[in-house]
Amino acid sequence: MQLTRARSKGGPALWVRGVVLCGAIAVSGCTNTDTQPEPEGTTTASATPAPTSTTTPDATPETPVVSSLEGGSKRLEYKWTTVTATPRKDGIQVKTVVRNTTDETNGYHVEISVGDNEGWLAYNTFRFEDVAPGTTVEQSSLVGGSHLGPTPDEPKIFIEKIDVF
Question: Measured between alpha carbons, how far apart are the two ends of the chain, in Å?
């Protein structure tokens, strides 16, 4: 799969499949037309915050869904991955959850970025190995810091890349 890197002025890099999307999509910023979770390969998603929305726990959103939570936290759900970003005094606490919805044991490599589209931008990579079928796993870490300036009150979450191996 060929990926093209596009950069919006003042914002984080977005990975977009094959084309640069013009205009704003109310909830997500990009779409993925696959109908099944990808057991192998790479998939991408990016989103900017939108009004609060909800999904059922069993739902697997085909387009990114962003929810606003208490305390300025944001949650981005895309396919089998959920990323939550919570502002802290010394950075942003990021929790990444992956659900293996296939019948095989898989590994997942998830690259995320969190920012404010005004210069504050932090990245992290989460690696989940040997995730059994039907299992949900999570990792969390603090990203960013005072060296980037004041922590954004309402961070924007981007899933830069998801590799399934």
Answer: 15
- Residue 134 half-sphere exposure toward CB, CA atoms < 13 A: 1
- Give the largest CA-CA distance in the chain: 45
Q: How high is the pLDDT of residue 60?
A: 65
Q: Judging by beta carbons within 10 Å of its beta carbon (0-12, 13-18, 19+), is residue 52 exposed, middle or buried?
A: exposed
DSSP 8-state symbol, 9: T
The CA distances from residue 5 to 103, 161, 163, in Å, are 32, 11, 16
72: phi then psi, degrees, rounded to nearest 5: 80, 5
> Residue 131 forms beta bridges with which residues?
106
pLDDT tens-place string over residues 80-138: 999 999 999 999 999 999 999 999 999 999 999 999 999 999 999 999 999 999 999 99
Contacts of 25 (CB under 8 A, 6+ apart): 31, 63
Q: What does the alpha-carbon distance between residue 153 and residue 149 come to, in Å, rounded to a whole number?
A: 12
d(CA 15, CA 158): 9
